[in-house]
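Bug #77: duplicate submission created two jobs. Keeping one. Sequence:
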Amino acid sequence: MPTAVAPAGTGLITTALLWLGSVCAAHSAMAAAPASTAAAANDPLVDQWARQVGQTMQARLRSMAASGEPRQLYLAGLLWVDAEDDAASAADGGYAPIQRVWLQRALDARPRDPLVARMESAGCAPALRCDPGAALAFLEQTDAGNASVHLRAYTAAQRRGDQAAAERAWQAAVQSDHFDSGALAFGKALHASYDSVQWPSLASVSLRAQLDAQGMPSTGADMAAMFVMGAWSAHALPALGDLMRRCSPTGVTAALRDECMSVLNNVANDESTLATALIGSRGMAALSSGADATRWQARVRELQWLQQQEQLRASGVDGMSDKLEAVLTQGEVPALRARLQRQGLAVQPPAGWQPGAPGHQTR
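Kept job's structure:
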């Protein structure tokens, strides 16, 4: 699956990214683990089970593609992996033949699907035909109140040197009433791709226990969730570099400051990913003053606390499929808060806590 992986916001995503790749790749990782785990991973029963999980996932993706729906075709192409296709040539963009067929059908479908259009607006591999400009124009028309769409248009105009178009897109972002990166809709669609699938079970209780003890997936659901989470992580985070450069606190005019705060406030309210909420909140804290600055600094501190608590609990895969499901279907920040509440842990940092300080487990 050729794509540039964006920086992850939490240890949860980092854990999931370690499993990005096919089920066969996951099995290879097990085999390279310490001796006690390698013995379990090399067991013929584990090998047979891992292959069965991979075959089940492939059958699910073929079924999705057979629906002919653009979104299902795109997701099937995005998630498809096959050990026999690993040697796909660079000229093919790293895609297997079946992936190219499914992805191209999704890109060619009209009317455009909003999720597919979001992907297309970011460009596509040389092996595929797409029109990022037309996809972006479609999104600007159908999702006009979303600052995320207009910021994409702003970045695209900046790259081609069209300052007039860039300014129009910027003003549209300023006038927007919300920011939705699309990460939550993408997460829900990805979750549906593996939810309710009857996954093969690893029959040996002792082998499952050995894999669990080393933080290796021991259920098909865990393996599928981690793989799907990798795809989400690669596409969920919006590119906000141009926004942050324009809204740098150094040298910003009063008028531009107001415009930036209008946009950043909406960015901060998008809790589908922790990184997006942090970027918006930090930007607001830097541009605010007085009581507003104090409020936004507290918000940044809260998000950093959630981030640290997750990192402290990111090792292992016990219940991982449930954790990842919550991130995909609820958004990362709400999922982190809910998990800490279920565990009886504080969702707000204790007095005196600062980012980077040793972790607390305040109940």
